Amino acid sequence: MMNKKDLLWMFSLYGTAIGAGVLFLPIKTGIGGLVPLIMMLVLAFPITFLAHRALCRFVLSSPASSDDITVVAQEYFGRFGGMIITLLYFCAIFPILLIYSVGISNTIDSFIVHQLGFASPNRLLLTFILVGILVLTVSFGQDVIVKVMSVLVFPFIIVLMLIALSLIPEWNLDLFHNIEFSWHKDIKNLWLMLPVMVFAFNHSPIISSLAVWTKKEYGDACDKKSTKIIATSNVLMIATVMFFVFSFMMCLNVDDFKLAQEENISILSLVANIADRFENPIFKVISPILVYVAPLVAFVAMGKSFFGHYLGAQEGFNQILFKLSLQKITPKISKKITILFTFIVSWLVAYANPQILNIIDNIVGPVLAIILFIMPLYAIYRFKALQKYKKPLQNLFILVFGLLTISAAVYTIF
Fold first, then answer.
1. Band of pLDDT at residue 357, cut at 50, 70 and 90
2. What is the C-alpha separation between 207 and 210, in angstroms, rounded?
3. Which residues neighbour 35 within 8 Å (Cβ) at sequence distance 6 or greater?
4. Residue 149, Cβ neighbours under 10 Å: how many?
5. Cα(200)–Cα(180) distance, rounded to whole angstroms?
6. Listed residue (11, 8, 309, 9) closest to 158, CA to CA
7. What residue intervals traverse the membrane (predicted)?
8. Number of CB atoms found within 10 A of residue 8's CB
């Protein structure tokens, strides 16, 4: 039985995962087609759950209750190896903050132009204000972040599902016409979707914090409790996300998804912009509300995920600063430097407006795969404290999909 605190963490995991990745996943799957979507539906839970549980167990294996992933990595891999893992951890998470900064800026800009009918605002000023609001919020600390995310996640799930349900009157069967299974085409499409799928369901930045909390809260029962929290949150996120993706694929065509990719906007902003194209009388009633609600939901989704990912980025960057200063920097100063660094870099990248899906495919996806799939698996077979988690079939599954995700990114780059 899960208590109030467990539920708070469960929804925080959900809130961390459900952000820009989910809002861009329909675009990637929409271009790929029905067969890869079905394959993804089958694979999403085992890939997500097994990888995040392995990462959590890696952190839980340390006897010290306060040790996060950066400290545990140093314990196992030594000073140099720990620094490499910390750098990878930071490089996996920090670009996600940049993605959210770009996505939020584009969502608000699109909302001002298409829904409010004003001219596009000065991007330098717009990004300064939006990124400033995000960074100001995270500066209040972990407790505030977790509470804000848990408050936002309930209405967000409801609105996300209402939007998916509101599209049902516009569903058509075009997606099921002329289905031809091609091993080469469909397997390749699924393979190339893996970086975005891993990113869409990723909640690794908050896993370390969850592990530290369960160690303090439950002692020897921490593994059992954290496994239950992760599994429950994963079932919820995959059920809601896959229905969300399917609903959009049932009412939009490939050209729509390609347009969203070209304009670097989320699926909700796309639907808001083309809502007048839908003819169904029921949707006509919903449409005036949807065109305003959808972009705001996208903003909330990316905003709360920014908060969750900041916890992980802060862990990594603080540890890097600690090492570079030869352990002389204080936590208070480290926190201030992290906040300032995050603000400046996020603001400049949001202003530059790089392609979001390219960042996911080429940077975030493969580095996440190393942290989520490869590193915990290596540790399980390398270190005695983790060898009780040896399960050949599960471990082989994690390894294969980790390598496939990395190879998909390499293929996309070259």
1. confident
2. 5
3. 179, 181, 186, 189, 190
4. 24
5. 27
6. 11
7. 7-27, 33-55, 76-104, 124-141, 148-169, 189-213, 229-249, 289-312, 333-351, 363-381, 393-413
8. 17
Q: Which residues, 6 or more positions from 8, have their beta carbon under 8 angstroms from its beta carbon? A: 146, 147, 150
Residues 100, 110: Cα–Cα separation, whole Å: 15
Report the alpha-carbon angle 336-342-345, nearest 5: 135
Three-state DSSP class for 357? helix
Domains of the chain, residue spans: 4-413
- For 99-112, the pLDDT digits (tens) are 889 989 998 998 99
Confidence of residue 279 (pLDDT cuts 50, 70, 90): confident
The H-assigned helical ranges of 222-264 are 222-249, 254-263
What CA–CA distance (Å, rounded) separates 151 from 146? 9
Q: What is the pLDDT of residue 150?
A: 66
Contact, 305 vs 19, CB < 8 A?
yes
Rounded-to-integer distance, Cα 376 and Cα 323, Å? 23
The predicted model scores a pTM of 0.81
pLDDT at 3: 86
The Cα 314–Cα 322 span in angstroms is 12
**CA 230 from centre of chain:** 15
Residue 411 in this model has a pLDDT that exceeds 90: no
Half-sphere exposure of 226 (CA within 13 A, CB side): 29
Which residue in this structure is represented by tokens 């990113």? 199
Residue 331: how many other CB atoms lie within 10 Å? 10
Spatial separation of the C-alpha atoms in residues 231 and 214, rounded to whole Å: 15
For residues 141-163, average pLDDT: 74
> In this structure, how many other beta carbons lie within 10 angstroms of the beta carbon of residue 381?
11
Indicate the helix (H) or strand (E) that contains 276. Answer: none
pLDDT tens figures, 238-266: 999 999 999 999 989 889 999 988 888 88
Residues 48-71: tens digit of each pLDDT: 999 999 999 999 988 777 777 878
Q: Count how many residues are written for the chain.
A: 414
Give which of 240, 241, 218 is closest to 228, Cα–Cα: 218
Is residue 342 a contact partner of residue 78, using CB atoms and an 8 Å limit?
no
**Residue 315 predicted with pLDDT over 90:** no
The arrangement of secondary structure in 4-413, i.e. its CATH architecture, is: Up-down Bundle (1.20)
pLDDT score for 399: 92
Place of tokens 């031809």: 180
